[in-house]
Amino acid sequence: MSDRAIGRREFTLLGGAAALLPLTARAQQRGRMRHVGIFAVGNPQGVLPRFEAFRKALAELGWAEGRNVIFIERLSHNDSARAPLLAAEMAQLAPDVIFVATSPALQTMRRATSTIPIVFATVTDPVGQGFVTHLARPGGNITGFAGQDFGLAAKQLELLRKIEPSIVRVAQVFDPLQTLSARLFAEFEAAAPSFGIQMSNMAIRTADDIERALNTFAAEPRGGLYVVASAATAQYQRLIITLAARHRLPAMYQLPYFVVNGGLACYGIDEIEPSRQAASYVDRILKGAKAGDLPVQLPTKFKFVVNMQTAKALGFSLSPEVLALADEVIE
Length: 331
Fold this sequence. Notes:
By secondary structure, this protein is an alpha/beta fold. It has 2 domains: 3-147 and 272-300, Rossmann fold (3-Layer(aba) Sandwich); 153-269 and 303-330, Response regulator (Rossmann fold, 3-Layer(aba) Sandwich), CATH 3.40.50.2300. It has helices at 3-7, 10-13, 23-32, 44-60, 83-93, 103-112, 153-163, 181-191, 207-217, 231-235, 237-246, 256-260, 273-286, 308-314, 320-325; strands at residues 34-40, 69-75, 97-100, 118-123, 142-146, 169-174, 198-203, 223-227, 251-253, 265-269, 302-307, 328-330. Helix 4 (44-60) packs across helix 13 and helix 5 (83-93) packs across helix 6.
C-alpha cells in the first residue's frame, strides 16, 4: 500500500464526511470518541515500528481504536515536499493531540499549529532546537521524550576500536541539512585523541556524494565510519552499507535499523522505547493534562547492537569482550 493511501486512511475511519460536520455535531461526536493524530516525515522503516509501539502502548492504557479513539494519520515518509501540506491538513482536522517521532516531523508540525498538543519521541536536543523552553517545564503545546543524548561519542569510539583495534581515522558521515551534526562532530573531536583517532567530516546529499567520498576516504588504510541518522543517510543506507563492506570499513551507526539492514554496529538509544513512553503522555493529555506542564524526559536506555554476519563478511573476528558487551547480536 502506498504511503499516500496509508496517510489518508483516516477518511475511511471517519466516513469521509466527518470533517465536514457542523461544529456542534463534531463536538457531540468528540464526547464519545477522541482523536489522536500521527504525523511522520522520514524513512518508513525507521518511523513505522515506532508508531506501532505507540499505538500498542496506548491500547494497553485503555484506548481502543474504533471504540474510544480514532487515529488520524499523515505520513509523508521521504517526500519532504509534501510534509507541510500534510501538516496543514492535520491541523485543520484538529485532533485532540498529535504524536510525532522525529525532529523533522516536529519541526513541520510545529509550524502548522501552536495550539494542538504535540507529544514527540526520539527528538534530539529539544531545547537547543527551540522546540521547548525548558525540559522540566516546557510550556507551550509541545512535550515528549528526547532521543539521542549527547555524550555518547566516547563510548561509540571505544566500541568501534574494540571491534577493529587498528582504526586511527574515523569519518562522520552526515547530511549537512541535519543541524545537530556539528554538535555531534565537536563531541567526537573532543573524545577522539583519547583513542588515538583523527576525526573528519563527510557531508553527503546524493548517491554520487557517497560514492565519491567513501572511495576517497578508503584510499588510505585504518579508517572507520560513524553514520549519523538523517533523511539522506536513511535513503541511501544500502549504498553506504555496500560501500563500507566493499572497502572493509568498520562502521558505527546511530540507530539500530541500519544494523538490521546489514550495517556492522550501533550504540545508542532504544529508539522504540520513547514511542511507548509517549503513549503515557498522550493518555494524560486526553484526560485533561496540559502538554506544557509535562516535563520532557531524557533517554535512560542505550543498547549496543552488532551484526555477526556483516562482521564475518568484512573479515572482523568479534572478540568475546565485544560479544559480551552487545545487548543484541544479529546472526
